[in-house]
Amino acid sequence: MSEIEKRGRGRPKKETVEFVMPTSPTDIQKINDAIKEADGSFIRVASEKDLIKCIADKMHSELGMPKKLFNKMAKTYHKQNYDKEVAEHETFEEIYDKVVNRKSSNTFEDDEE
């Protein structure tokens, strides 16, 4: 059996994590408290995501704005990365046109002499 077959589908085995369960009631309570705190955070995250969805729904129903467009605009505004978004879109558009539409030569500008 090859090494790849032993690992299964070519994926590396997951590393096992060793953890020694504390026996101290204080330490066990710390873990329990941390789990409850994380749970509260998960609930808040889910609530905020639901609120964002409601806002996008409202823009769609009141103004006909596509939800996908609203969400992209909101994320771009939040991350303050408009210039990066524009540059990535321009790069995509240029490469797509060269590969699929072949509007320009078959070589990329960087490859030209």
Q: How would you describe this protein?
A:
By secondary structure, the chain is an all-alpha fold. The protein has a domain at 31-65. The chain contains four helices and no strands. It has helices spanning 3-7, 25-63, 67-79, 82-101. α2 crosses α3. The radius of gyration is 25 Å and the shape is flat. The mean pLDDT is 88.
Overall spatial form: flat
How is the main sheet built? none
Radius of gyration, in angstroms, nearest whole number = 25 Å
Q: Output the structural class.
A: mainly alpha
Mean model confidence by pLDDT: 88
Low-pLDDT segments, ≥5 res: none
**H and E string:** HHHH
Residue fraction in strands: under 5%
What distance separates the N and C termini?
A: 50 Å
Instruction: Compute the number of strand runs.
Output: 0
Query: Count of helices?
Result: 4
The percent range for helix content is 55-70%
